[in-house]
């Protein structure tokens, strides 16, 4: 008789805790601290979350011409997002189907893709074109008719390119319908994308803490004194409002008022004398509020009276995150062409960056200390107040994905 017991996964205690947690009304309690610190849990999350979710890799106007392509990396997979001769955008694995060499990790323009190892080449639709010294023409023809770079799900949403490694994932757009009212009147202003400057620095905290800091309506009054008072969560005329969440939503949304119309980011943070002019096509109520939306696990969006600002977020390890946009590296804006054409646009951008980096400088020590708190044996089970609705919504979004991927008991 074989008496060898199956090895117990180091994640078993975390999985047991997650299994015991409940999602009610699209809200869930605080996750175990190991979800923010454990390398093994991060590996689980790569499959449970990142390999099954829609992730933004850029904007369609970043690859305007046939042959333009973006390189992207999701859940450890190197991918290519390519505009073909018919102006369609497709996504492929960048793994050569000969012996598995990565074809390229950089973005650019090409008429075809050539693997650097034995020069197999692929056309803009991912079909094998050439394979030198593989035999007679009939053999090559046979290879060409059967070999193609694996295709990846792709969806365009308001000009953003999203990809998903999960062939069976539900479509993206229906999961983001709650954001449609916030898009109203923006695109009539002939918006142009200014992509974020890519991040080079790893921020030393878990990716979920990065989102929690972004989405937390409770902290600005305390952490962001002097930079965020113009867009308060608490205000006698009504403060933050939370958009209701359903279990199939991929967006978590809050909106705060501004003290005066047409304000925005200026060199001291949020203020009346915004660096970018207000967008003329917006309705009066849109010119007096800011909406913060997260689209986990890779993106945030912010609708302000003068800009839509977006951040792209990459989880690199249990305690490492990369983020690119105006708070960290610059750019990440959708702006009316008329704003980009202003002769002093560079100075205005610099003011936005200065104000945003003052807010960011206040968040940095908070995120560092929160990551340290997650390591503590004294970490609380967590108490949420009325201003923390987006956090319990995020917990539910995560828990849905974790529970769906747990190994069968
Ligand atoms: S591995 Fe790509 S051509 Fe050989
Ligand atoms: Fe903050």
**DSSP E strands, number:** 20
Using the alpha-carbon principal axes, give the shape. globular
Radius of gyration: 23 Å
Q: Provide the CATH superfamily of the largest domain.
A: Naphthalene 1,2-dioxygenase Alpha Subunit, Chain A, domain 1
Contiguous low-pLDDT stretches (5 residues minimum) are none
Order of helices and strands: HHEEEEEEEEHEEHEHHEEEEEEEEEHHH
SSE-based structural type: alpha+beta
Beta-strand residue fraction: 15-25%
**Helical run tally:** 9
The amount of helix comes to 10-25%
- Major β-sheet profile: 8 strands, antiparallel
Q: For the record, what CATH class of the largest domain applies?
A: Alpha Beta
Salient structural properties:
single chain, 409 residues, alpha+beta, Rieske Iron-sulfur Protein, 8-stranded antiparallel sheet, 7-stranded antiparallel sheet, 20 strands, binds FE2/S2 (inorganic) cluster, binds fe (ii) ion
């Amino acid at each position: 008789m074989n008496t060898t017991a199956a090895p117990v996964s180091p994640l078993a205690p975390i999985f047991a805790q997650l299994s015991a947690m409940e999602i009610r009304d699209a809200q869930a309690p605080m996750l175990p601290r190991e979800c923010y610190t454990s390398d093994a849990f991060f590996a689980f999350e790569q499959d449970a979350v990142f390999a099954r979710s829609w992730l933004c890799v850029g904007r369609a106007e970043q690859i305007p011409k046939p042959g333009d392509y973006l390189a992207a990396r999701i859940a450890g997979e190197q991918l290519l997002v390519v505009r073909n001769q018919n102006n369609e955008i497709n996504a492929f694995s960048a793994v050569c189907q000969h012996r598995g060499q990565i074809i390229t990790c950089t973005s650019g323009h090409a008429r075809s893709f050539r693997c650097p190892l034995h020069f197999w080449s692929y056309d803009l639709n991912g079909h094998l074109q050439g394979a030198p010294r593989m035999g007679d023409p009939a053999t090559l023809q046979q290879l060409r008719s059967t070999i193609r770079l694996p295709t990846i799900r792709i969806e365009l949403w308001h000009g953003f390119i999203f990809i998903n490694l999960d062939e069976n994932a539900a479509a993206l757009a229906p999961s983001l319908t709650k954001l449609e009212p916030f898009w109203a009147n923006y695109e009539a202003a002939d918006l142009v994308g200014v992509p974020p400057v890519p991040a080079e620095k790893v921020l030393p905290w878990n990716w979920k803490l990065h989102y929690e800091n972004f989405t937390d309506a409770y902290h600005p009054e305390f952490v962001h004194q002097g930079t965020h008072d113009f867009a308060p969560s608490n205000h006698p005329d009504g403060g933050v409002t939370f958009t209701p969440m359903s279990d199939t939503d991929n967006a978590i949304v809050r909106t705060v008022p501004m003290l005066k119309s047409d304000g925005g980011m200026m060199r001291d943070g949020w203020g009346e004398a915004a660096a970018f002019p207000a967008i003329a096509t917006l309705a009066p109520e849109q010119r007096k509020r800011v909406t913060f939306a997260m689209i986990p696990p890779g993106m945030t969006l912010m609708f302000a009276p003068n800009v839509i600002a977006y951040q792209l977020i990459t989880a690199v390890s249990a305690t490492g995150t990369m983020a690119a946009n105006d708070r960290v590296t610059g750019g990440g804006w959708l702006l009316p062409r008329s704003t980009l054409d202003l002769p002093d646009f560079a100075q205005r951008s610099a003011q936005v960056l200065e104000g945003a980096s003052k807010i960011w400088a206040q968040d940095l020590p908070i995120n560092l200390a929160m990551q340290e708190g997650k390591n503590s044996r004294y970490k609380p089970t967590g108490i949420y107040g009325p201003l923390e609705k987006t956090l319990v919504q995020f917990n539910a979004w995560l828990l849905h994905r974790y529970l769906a991927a747990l190994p069968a008991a």
